[in-house]
Specification:
The chain is mostly helical and 46 residues long. 87% of the residues lie in helices and 0% in strands. The N and C termini lie far apart (61 Å).
Length: 46
């Protein structure tokens, strides 16, 4: 494998990792938001 191929693979891996971490963060925020709306709708938040 040439150095250019290795560099391209590293860049693609880095971008894929950033996208994956972003999706995990977004998913966690969505779960928290749904849980908060559920508790508020049940009247059990306060």
């Amino acid at each position: 494998m040439s150095i250019a191929t290795i560099l391209v693979a590293l860049v693609l891996g880095f971008v894929a990792w950033k996208v994956l971490v972003g999706l995990v963060k977004f998913g966690a925020l969505a779960i928290i938001a749904v849980a908060a709306i559920y508790f508020l709708s049940q009247g059990g938040a306060f």
